[in-house]
Amino acid sequence: MSNVRGFGAKGDGVNDDTEAIEHALKMGDGTLEFPRGEYRVTRTIVIELANHGRFAVSGSGGTAKLLMEGAGPVFRVLGTHSKTADPNGFRDEEWQLERMPTFTQFEIEGRHPEADGLEISGIMQPTFEGILIRKVRNGIRFFDRARNILISHCHIYHNTGIGVFFDNINLHQTNIVGSHISYNRLGGIRIENSEIRNFQVTGCDIEYNNNRAFGVPDADDVPTAEIYIDCGENGTVREGTISSCTIQATYSPNGANIRIIGSRTPESQKAGMWCITGNLIGSQATNVHLTHCRGITFEGNYIYSGHVRNLLVESSKSIVIGNNCFGHNPDYKEKELCTGIRLVDCENCTLTGVQIQDAQAGEHTVPNTVPIERQGLVELIRCRRMQLTGVQVLEGTPAAVYLEDCQDTLLTGCLINDAREMPLAEASIRWTGMGSGNLVSNCRANRPLEIAESAGVTTTGVVVG
């Protein structure tokens, strides 16, 4: 390895070590070794792998810190890979010179308002392990094209922009595992206007990615999320998993824990084929927000304390919501937040084995909280071909289940109950508007049913009282 001290770097936090690092890159063996110390960098170090060859950075078990005192990333690593990850699509020189640049066990700290951490483009198998990036703008940014990204056991923390940023990129095969991605003002993991396939986020702690820790004036309501996916005008984001993560936040007016925006045109769903499974998700305006998506399974999660809704699904198709618990902590009493599921303009969706329980007060009791506006604990508005089976709706307010202008929608085998000493549910099911082909069967409810004749609903085997 090329020890940067041997090429003139001081690592004393006083001298500018940029030229010494560039000298080590040019004359060394490809691996930059940073012994313990603080290394000042004042401009971006660009590595073109086709000219430089295989490349790695090692920070001596995390004892080395790079202080970025200029604009842009510390390292910008560029490759020439332009095809898929199919082994038959590689040129020999890519395997010889460009594969798997690695970044391990060092810290980057920003000392400039436009400092960034790392930027990657055109690379096959970039690998990041055990690094800390903080006080920069964007932690790790991927752009243009990449394949087979691994991010493991990293801390991307307290940055003014985005933690891990996929920016207008064509990318297949990404694994983000076992990492802490928190306190990034514009999002923890964010995908914008990109073509993405095979994207996995597993076992991560992703929290508090909004303006609260920064206090930028008039920026609290900038839309953000712990995981933010926006297909934009030209992107498609399919084949992904979010599993076994803690995903939570402090409230921001337009915030979400997970936000997936498939398209802004009603005829196209550009995000789908995703599984969201086994996560703890809570404490945002909207916990999970899906817009123009197709084909997402959402199960095995605990979802809590959504200031507006726990789950909001808009203009989406084939969304499977099963075996989740939507709740709150009744021990909080004077600090309870209501829950809620809302689906609008959706079709071909199912809710199976879901339990949802509202706050005992039927309203937010957290001080200074914006009052919740809703018509039911579970709301379906202008939906078609929907099925709610084995759903348990507890302590709903003002109605437990509210449906409006729905067609071919079935509620079967559901338990709808308000066990509060003074029930607040005005109706177990309130079904309004125009509709046809709707059915309520084999359900148990202890509050009245209010079903408009125009809604086109048949009831059978329903026990009320």
What does it look like?
By secondary structure, the chain is mainly β. It has a domain at 328-465. The protein is built from three helices and 46 strands. The longest helix is centred in the N-terminal third of the chain and has 10 residues, at 18-27. It starts with a strand and ends with a strand.
The share of residues in extended strands comes to over 45%
In percent, how helical is the residue content?
under 10%
Oligomerization category of the chains in this entry: single chain
Average of the residue pLDDT scores: 94
Structural class: mainly beta
Number of helical segments with 4 or more residues = 3
Give the termini separation: 77 Å
Q: Nearest-angstrom radius of gyration?
A: 25 Å
Low-confidence stretches: none
Total beta-strand segments: 46
Instruction: Label the overall shape.
Output: elongated
> Biggest sheet, open or closed, and with what strands and sense?
46 strands, parallel
Write the layout of secondary structure elements.
Blueprint: E1 2-3, E2 12-16, H1 18-27, E3 31-33, E4 37-41, E5 45-48, H2 49-52, E6 56-58, E7 64-68, E8 72-78, H3 92-98, E9 102-104, E10 107-110, E11 115-121, E12 123-124, E13 127-129, E14 132-134, E15 140-152, E16 155-159, E17 164-177, E18 180-184, E19 189-192, E20 195-202, E21 205-207, E22 224-230, E23 236-243, E24 246-248, E25 255-261, E26 271-277, E27 280-291, E28 293-299, E29 302-314, E30 317-322, E31 325-327, E32 341-344, E33 347-352, E34 355-357, E35 376-381, E36 384-389, E37 392-394, E38 399-404, E39 410-412, E40 415-417, E41 427-432, E42 438-441, E43 444-445, E44 449-451, E45 457-460, E46 463-464
Parallel strand pairs: 1-3, 2-4, 3-6, 4-7, 5-8, 6-9, 7-10, 8-11, 9-13, 10-14, 11-15, 12-15, 13-15, 14-16, 15-17, 16-18, 17-19, 17-20, 18-21, 19-22, 20-23, 21-24, 22-25, 23-26, 24-27, 25-27, 26-28, 27-29, 28-30, 29-31, 29-32, 30-33, 31-34, 32-35, 33-36, 34-37, 35-38, 36-39, 37-40, 38-41, ...
